[in-house]
Amino acid sequence: MKNKLLKKLLLPLALLLGSFIYAQTVTGTVSDASGPLPGVNVLVKGTSTGTVTDFDGNFEISANNGDVLVFSYVGYKTQEVTVSGNTVNVTMAEDAAQLNEVVVVGYGSTTKKEITSAVTKVDEEEFNRGTVNSPSQLLQGKVPGLSIYNKGGNPNESATIRLRGISTVGANSSPLIVIDGVIGASLDNIDPNDIASMTVLKDGSAAAIYGSRGSSGVILITTKSGKAGSTSVSYNGSIAASSISNKVDNMSPQEFVDAGGVDLGSRTDWMDLVTRTAYTNVHNVAISGGYDQTTFRLSTNFRDAQGILENSGFKQFNSRVQASTKILNDKLKIDFNASYTKRDSKYGFNEALRYAVLYNPTAPVYGVDSPYPFNADNFGGYFETLGLFDSFNPVSIINQNLNNGYRTEFTYSANFNYNVTDFLDLTATYSEQSKILNNREYYATTSLFRGSATSPFRKGLARTYDRDDKFKLFELYGDLTLDPTDQLNIKFTAGYSWQQEEYFDKFLSAGDFPNNDLLYLNALEWAQDLRNAGFIELNSNRSPEQRIIAFFARASATFDNAIFVNASIRREGSTKLGENNKWGNFPAFGIGVDANKYLELNNVDLLKVRFGYGVTGSLPSDYGLSLPQYTPTGDLLSTNFTRAGNPDLKWEQKGESNLGFEFNMGRLGATLDLYSRKVKDFILERTVEASEFGTNRRVENGGDLSTKGLELSLSYDFIKKDDLTYKSTLNFSTYKTTLKSFDATTLNGNLGAPGQNDTNVILVAPGEEIGQIVGPVFNGDVVDGSQQFVDLNGDGTIQTSQVIGNFIDANEDGVRDGDLTVLGKGIPDFELGWLHQITYKNWDFNVFFRGAFGHSLVNNFRVFYEPRVGSQGSYNLVNTKYADPNITNAKFSSLYVEKADFVKLDNLQIGYNFNIAENDYIKSVRVSLTAQNLFTITGYTGADPEPALTDRGSIDNGGFLPAYANPLIPGIDRRYNYFASRTFTLGVNVNF
């Protein structure tokens, strides 16, 4: 018994002693392709013995020969190494799971690795932060080649969106929007809080599957959805304060008087009176969840967004429903989406900003404060400088007049996906969308601005505009997936698409009211214009039912998980085109090769080379352009033939090739795209021979342009620890667009009144780069108040009139006929976006810089109001660093064309995630503070250095802004632009 007891005691003691005798200290270094890795977990497999690498990646652990060490780190593949000695060095490989990330493309999805086109996906965590009132703002600066500018930041204006520059001249130049598979869905009918990801199809091979609407690129939006297993409630709320970030430098009241201005006795800061600290409230509540095969998400969004201009901003209610279920033994999946938006807008009057700059700073706000005789009833009590051209009290404009809008939108879609077999799926989608827009303007009988209060015959003005748009979509397609061998995977997609849209609008303008008691709501019948023929304006339009019908097919193949091929064809017809050219074909082809599969480079996860080519199109923006047009005259419609029909009118066509390179190695990721595109057959209204067509106007195809560009994206994870991460992403893009052929060589971009009505400054000419600013060169001398210009052609005379003849070399002798030259260009040479994402324990930091370089702007405020014109003694003067008191005659020149390069801290956010004790109610709480447009580094003296990519023309105080913005006329900083703001936002997110 004693021996047995002794054995039981000695055996574990011997084992314990043996562990001390045979255990050894194992040391080593853990690194990745970029160097040592701190914070890596090192564990002896099957035990609790473990350690962590230090700052230099070194570790020390006690282990026996034959033990297995497990190395694990966030973002890297877990690695196991058997101990055979006292030194173990490990190089860890990046977990390349992101290469298998699913990316939505046209009519389906694929993995990131298999894509053969230029496609960029931006997830929610990469979106811009803070007060974002439009989905397009989420992407600003995030995608190389995608330019998004809302110059001035008017909350009621949509941003100008350009993908790889100008893709069309006479059609829609903004990318096609596809929301949850609905082609042509409204970007205004989705709240930014409901977006999960946005995918940009940049090149022709990716967009060709969308045919005649893909030339300007495609933005695919995927909304958030519910998850089965639990029900969750989230609240996102924020309050923001915005203030004007930069003003146009003008004279103070005392400077104005000292310079000889007319002193009216007051000292007034007009800009301060028409602007404000604007507050924005955003509230979003979402309920999501599901059970078994059914999921749902319901969200409600409310926005009350003020603009920095008094009486501008909007209130918006949006609600969205998403539901998904599976039936018929899980073979049929049904997805339903619906969205409703109601927005009430106060557009205000941008002109108030313009007159706040130029109005006499010594004038009083109210007439009772004026030392001059004044009848307060004439102008509602406001002081007005009568007898002066283009001079209106800005406070009176804001307070006396109304400019409001009302918009409602409703969209729903149902998607049915039936799994016929393991390799065959059928998908059907049906969607309808309606949009109703109502605009209302009223100019008081006492308003000098547009109300014509000084006229004894006509006082006050009311305008109404109503539009109703309807849209229907039906699509049916099938997916066939085959795996003929272990190394070959093939997928076929083929389908049919039908879309119909129509609209109705009407416009009414009437004036001369007895008083302001009823405003415009019930007062139209009181308009005295009813007694006078020719004063009332009335117009209405109804489109025919415009249809698009298409048949499409696509084949994609993957070989050896390294060679990827994609080809597609879409045949599409549209009733917007001429009878002889309703149908067109849009082919595409792409190939990609993961070269690293065969090169087997150390620590490289992906080295892909891809090439794609695709043909896309653009349809006319307007309806009925191929049909003859008549304008009513008296009782006879047919007697006034204004535009000839064109049965041969066809779509604009773009052919684009793209060569791309993708590289992933550990923490480093890079994408480079080189592209070349040619657009032809612009849809333009032209002057034709009346003897041939019966009238001198006709819409025809003609002209072409070419664009060459480069896009680069670099990302690097500088730090990847459990408690600390830091990732930086840099986006770079550049392009050049040349107008190859056109039916005219002209100078466009009329600067306007007063005094510059014949001044056109933007060159539009075959063989020339788009966006060149043309004018005379100021030589620095001023004689008798006038700038002196350089004799560029050396002929002894100065020819500087803004006509094309003074720029071109008509007789081709190598010398220009006049003395105009290129002073700059309106399109940037390159654009940058630089994102920094940092997390530290519960904190997260997001810093985003954005810049554009190489572009210039015609500073219109300086052109008109900087010269010390003697006759303008009652107008304030712009007073920048370029102002020369000796210049007393206004004349456009190089003096007013400024380089507008800028870098701005566009977005800075600091967030904190609270540690919430486990409970049945609150799951997480996060608060954040965001600053937008915090500072801008630029030499430009205007209000906003961002490029003006389009132009709406010279607009005086006479009416509505023109709907058409000309992409051939970039580079003019107009006087009607809104002023940029700086915004601070406090936000909170609570998940229940």
TrEMBL record:
InterPro entries: Beta-barrel_TonB (IPR000531), Beta-barrel_TonB_sf (IPR036942), CarboxyPept-like_regulatory (IPR008969), Plug_dom (IPR012910), Plug_dom_sf (IPR037066), TonB-dep_OMP_SusC/RagA (IPR023996), TonB-dep_OMP_SusC/RagA_CS (IPR023997), TonB-dep_rcpt-like (IPR039426). Residues 1-23 form the signal peptide. Residues 377-934 form the TonB-dependent receptor-like beta-barrel domain. It is found in: Cell outer membrane. The keyword Ribosomal protein does not apply. Residues 112-218 form the TonB-dependent receptor plug domain. Keywords: Cell outer membrane, Membrane, Signal, TonB box, Transmembrane, Transmembrane beta strand, Transport. This is SusC/RagA family TonB-linked outer membrane protein. It comes from Gaetbulibacter aestuarii.
